[in-house]
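Treating backbone geometry as a discrete language has practical consequences that deserve illustration. The amino acid sequence and the backbone structure tokens for this protein are reproduced below.
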Amino acid sequence: MRISTTRSALLAGAVAVTLSATALPAAFAAPSATAVISEVYGGGGNSGATLTRDFIELANAGSAAYGLDGLSVQYLPGAPSAGSLWQVSALTGSVAPGGRYLVAEAAGTGGTVALPTPDATGTVAMSATAGTVALVSGTAPLTCKTAADCAADTRIVDLVGYGTAVVREGSGPAKGTSATASVARAASLADTDDNATDLTAGTPSPVNAAGETSGGGEDPGDPGNPTEPGTVRIHDIQGTTRVSPLDGRAVTGVPGVVTAVRTSGSRGFWIQDTAPDADPRTAEGVFVYTGSAAPAVQVGDSVLVSGTVDEYYPSSTTQSVTEITAPKVTVLSSGNALPAPVVLDAKAVPSKYVPSAGGGSIDALPLEPSTYALDLYESLEGTRVQIADTRVTGATTAYHEVWVTVEPKQNPTRRGGTLYASYTDQNTGRIKVVSLDPAAPVPTANVGDVLAGTTSGVLDYDSYGGYNLQATALGKVTDHHLKREVTRKQKGKELAVATYNVENLDALDDQAKFDTLAEGIAVNLSSPDIVSLEEIQDDNGAVNDGTVGSEATLKRFTDAIVAAGGPRYSWRYVAPQDGKDGGEPGGNIRNVFLFNPKRVDFVDRPGGDATTPVAAVKTRKGVTLSVSPGRIAPASAAWDDSRKPLVGEFRFRGESVFVVGNHFASKGGDQPLHGRYQEPVRSSETKRVQQAKEVNTFVKSLLAADKSARVVVLGDLNDFAFSPTVGALTDGKVLKPLITTLPKNEQYSYVYEGNSQTLDHILTSPGVRRFDYDVVHINAEFADQASDHDPQIVRVDVNASEHGNGHGNGHGHGGGHHGHH
């Protein structure tokens, strides 16, 4: 099935891990005497195929109707990886005794014959050669990934594995599927719970509940080149929900004017009706997908388009794009005026972001464009829009994309961004802007700059941020001269501790990267006494040859810091076991401490290695560490395939300070804010909460041994100050998140999809009684960045009395914009 050429690389690894092919036991589920999966075909629309769509056919061998309300058919790749998800197509109605029920799935660009009218429509792009289909009682996605696990799931009514599928019934999957062959049961509908025996390959023969077939391989509706419009208009195709009511249907002679053409990536063009209806929910534009063929039209052409309506999902959790595929186009005239664009501004965009479906799909909800921003954008999908004088909230990326806001007063940061304030307070005005002209890409802009004048084009949707403006005319950037910040130098009695994610640094990187990162430490951070680094890789980076040391990397980095005017730092780390800490394959990512030995001493205690846990040791003089440097509970399942926290004991001005460097599990795999499931599931959060609890337990052990222990916990936690992760980390008030001591409009260190947010943190124990904290903005808001994270720093007065002021300089942060020069 089709995958946009610019996105296919992201999906290439989705079936890279082959699980054990344990056959399902004979009693997988009692062999059905009623509803069964009777035929499965995943080659629809492929090269050489006759049918344009994949399908799943159900049948009823019983003597009474079999109700399907609340049931679903679900699909899993043939060799599921850890990240593979079952994709769900909901069912309604029933299967008559002896009857069939047809579920249409995704369309491709090949084929000439439409399915008979489907009884249900899904959007799953099934493999032609290997996969598993299940008939399921309920619509919640299955979670099983092996045959044995699926055998234990009582929700599964019937299951068919085909090709080389890992999950299947009986001795093996049904064999022989291809672009031109399905697998189907015999006319008896026999179900012995052995896919290899019960289903055989043959020519696809879909039948719907009405008994209709696809016409035996003949094209029942070749539209030719009509010269008069058909009966269907674009607003009929778009409908009043996110999914077209004509999904999977052939349409003939749809009229429109070509408003934009895309010649790279997912090729095609947009058309818009010049005679819109009066319903604000129905979009008047639509994308015509031409596949590998360059569009043979020009902007201003009046055309009639015939083809098949398809809802294309860039991924399983995103919303879809309504398209006309396999098009045949008649150009009636050229040089026509374009419809006036819809103006998107603060007055037009609602303050609410998206409706709730209780975690389910919003696909079928009626659009409410005057109430929800995402409904407004969906009602304008494929339509010409215009923005003017918009503030940049996400700097121009390497892919020539820039984020702007049409809601300038919405959660502004001090430096011009848009703050991500909470899960329920979304920034509705964010729009990504991309140029359709490869010769005139989006200009370079930083956060706070303004895309001045008018920018216009068509509103599109993709998996990288959701709704975006595909610009045919770009405004000009007004440079607001955003400056990289420089924090103040620590005073003699202050211990300065910083955290910095240096984005997969290894000895094979260009010297320019080392130099820029080094300047950030020596100049912008004013040479902290201790720097906790995240994302230091082994010395040969992604080369997977068993190397785990980082000496050459750290030698180059510390040399570069000296060259930038900083001190000669020493370092400590615990090398991971090869391939056990996640990150880039072969990179052996880890946390590292740099420290200035002229200002602070590192207390070395031998025995710390990749598998030995560090422990708090109570002594007459207070608490010490069992090993230093050490790792927190490295054998805990919380750290499986993830970076382990690095713990070190330091001495400054006669006092002990314990530093815990962290890099929690990434947010990859979470459902997107703009996706089809609302509210989004944050599946990655589970592991981070587990990790936070491990660190919290360790800090509590230090404080149990010495309630006055000075502990600094810092690093890239990959989560927000308001998240359950930070809640678990601070449980029992053993740690204070310093980001919350800053003014609200300064509480960020990372920018993602135009949202300024905080993933990096510094937290301190109650024993840290006087501090001065600062986020130093040098990367995240800039198009030219050495890392995608901004560093943070806290300056601690370790000799502050027990009754001293709890905040630096009496105002809670001492950094922010007050600490910069």
